[in-house]
Design brief:
Helix 2 packs antiparallel against helix 11, helix 3 crosses helix 11 and helix 11 packs across helix 12. Helices cover about 40% and strands about 15% of the residues. Helix 7 links the parallel strand 5 and strand 6. The strands form three sheets. A seven-stranded mixed sheet has the order 2-8-7-6-5-3-4, with helices on both faces. The protein is an alpha/beta fold. The chain binds pyridoxal-5'-phosphate (PLP). The site of pyridoxal-5'-phosphate has 13 residues, from helix 4.
């Protein structure tokens, strides 16, 4: 496997050349990543040259619409789905609330939805609220010590009343990557749909959603090197089965059915820059130049680079008695999203790390239910250390040295 050319990677992110950010090691990536240059360039170009209503005949409008279409078609291809199965909403949370409204209309009292206690609130609360409409909510619980979500636990909850199972590709505090393909297969075999929160996974490589078999898959481009949007893949079924949440005359367009507001044209257009970056990353390292092949190649490249950096961090944290590592310590199953519980509140530790040039954060990260389930007071919170493929080994060393001074 090719080794990641970290200088090439960092040259694609203007933040690394930004004078005000020099000497700052960025470990708050799970909250929002740096933005790659092609996205910034496209956003700027749109605002300068194409900031008009798109899809009309005049040139600026035609170009704006074409760029929005380009973003959808290229990203959908990378995700292994049809172009109209990908839509853009303001954020993942807003997308799940719209989806939950569609399910509210679609389901009957007595139908059941399975949620987890491992999920961020965005893929949990909107579904739990359907209890108010007579929908039975069943909770698939993780191991309170390790945070592991055992598929056997799901098996025990599935029956012919279950219509939907909402779970995450990777929790934003536990960090373990769930076996989405196996779980989606179980869900489908039981006659239900799956809704997968891919927000904490996508920055570490775009998923082949077609291959995973998820019916709905959500992630946020502002954490995936792009602009502030929520990307939502809804496969044709359930997309054409659930009731339309947009204007009645748009009901035949799958990609418009669950985004009732007028979309943010500039940000959708700029999202094509995410595809530019991923393709450039793949091509630079000798991988396929375009499409799904480039996405798979970039995914594996990112993963390998991240694991190399994650190993010493996990090793260091596991050696500290004063640290409770949230989630398991097994490297292979983890994303580089590492939450730790300490005697001191997470936010206070983050504040002590800031003057040492460590950008990180503490708190509950809207994972209030997961933290409670693991016996951590969300008010006290955790310190979260999260990085991506663009992080350098010396930054991880700097982090470990700084942690050693504050822990
Ligand atoms: C795992 C996970 N899911 C969902 C969300 C919500 O995403 P958004 O901010 O786009 O609503 C977040 C945000 O932190 C997250 O980390």
């Amino acid at each position: 496997m090719t080794t990641l050319d970290i200088d090439f990677v960092r040259a694609q992110f203007p933040a690394f050349a930004e004078p005000s950010l020099q000497g700052q090691a960025f470990f708050d990536n799970a909250a929002g990543s740096y933005t790659c240059a092609p996205v910034i360039d496209r956003l700027t170009r749109f605002y300068r040259q194409r900031k008009v209503q798109p899809y009309s005949a005049y040139e600026a409008s035609r170009l704006g619409g074409a760029e929005m279409d380009e973003a959808r078609s290229r990203l959908a291809a990378m995700l292994g789905v049809a172009t109209d199965e990908l839509s853009f909403g303001p954020s993942t949370t807003q997308n799940t609330y719209v989806l939950a409204q569609a399910f509210r209309q679609h389901l009957q009292p007595g139908d059941a939805i399975i949620v987890t206690d491992q999920d961020h609130e965005a893929n949990s609360g909107p579904w739990r609220r359907l209890a108010e409409d007579g929908i039975e909510i069943r909770e698939w619980r993780m191991d309170p010590e390790t945070g592991h979500l055992d598929p056997a636990g799901l098996g025990a909850l599935l029956d012919d009343k279950v219509r939907l199972v909402a779970f995450s590709h990777c929790s934003n505090v536990v960090g373990e990557v769930n076996d989405v393909a196996a779980i989606c297969a179980m869900v489908r075999a039981a006659g239900a749909w799956s809704c997968v929160d891919g927000v904490s996974y996508a920055p570490h490589g775009l998923a082949d959603i077609g291959a995973l078999g998820a019916d709905i898959y959500l992630f946020s481009s502002y954490k995936t090197y792009g602009p502030h949007q929520g990307l939502m893949v809804i496969r044709r079924d359930p997309g054409m089965t659930l009731p339309n949440q947009g204007h009645f005359f748009n009901a035949d367009s799958l990609y418009m059915r669950f985004t009732p507001a007028g979309p943010d044209h500039a940000q959708i257009a700029a999202s094509a820059g995410m595809a530019d970056y991923i393709e450039a990353l793949s091509a630079h390292h000798g991988g396929p130049a375009t499409g799904a092949g480039a996405a798979r190649f970039a995914h594996d490249l990112m993963r390998q680079a991240e694991l190399t950096l994650l190993a010493p961090l996990l090793e260091y944290l596991s050696s500290k008695n004063s640290v409770r590592l949230i989630g398991g310590a097994a490297l292979d199953a983890r994303a580089p999203t590492v939450a730790i519980a300490l005697a001191e509140p997470g936010e206070a530790v983050a504040a002590r790390l800031a003057p040492m040039g460590i950008m990180t954060a503490g708190g509950d990260f809207y994972a209030v239910r997961p933290l409670r389930a693991m016996g951590v007071d969300p008010g006290h919170g955790v310190l979260r250390l999260s990085f991506t493929h663009y992080t350098r080994a010396d930054e991880v060393e700097k982090l470990i040295t700084a942690l050693d001074r504050v822990l």
